[in-house]
Amino acid sequence: MGLLIFLLMIGVPIVEIVVFIKVGGWLGVGPTVAIVILAAIFGATLLRRQGFAVLMRVRESLAAGRLPLDEMFDGLCLLVAGVLLLTPGLVTDAIGFLLFVPPVRAVVRRIISAYLLASGRIHTPAGGPPRPPPGGPPVIEGEYEEVDDRRRPRREDGDGNPWRHDKS
Prior knowledge:
The chain is mainly α. The chain has helices at 2-27, 29-63, 69-86, 90-98, 102-119. The chain has a domain at 12-119.
């Protein structure tokens, strides 16, 4: 994993420089820089709008008693998209804008989920986690053991309460 990050830190700037040179030679320096600046401004606006939409979906999921896993993944994708759009570069801008498209995020979610499940880093129960019925009382799982009160010595004070030990 460390090697992958190292290669990305070296490879991404090299790819960005090559793309800048190619696009700058084709369009000119001014329009190329303008594209990068406009992409950052447009991306920040888009990030704000979609970020609020994801936040509202998280609230709706929580109110319905569901874990907002898909919504949280969408929020993470939007965070990565925002970082990529604020990073100067045309390739990072393109990847950042792709992460704003919901079907692209769904594909990325399926790929990452399949990878994590195959790697054994996460485990899910056969039918998924149990969910409480919407609008019903909360379900608390636990274990219990029945105790026969006839075998337990009773300590009664004057009012018949077997569990009260102080005389107040």
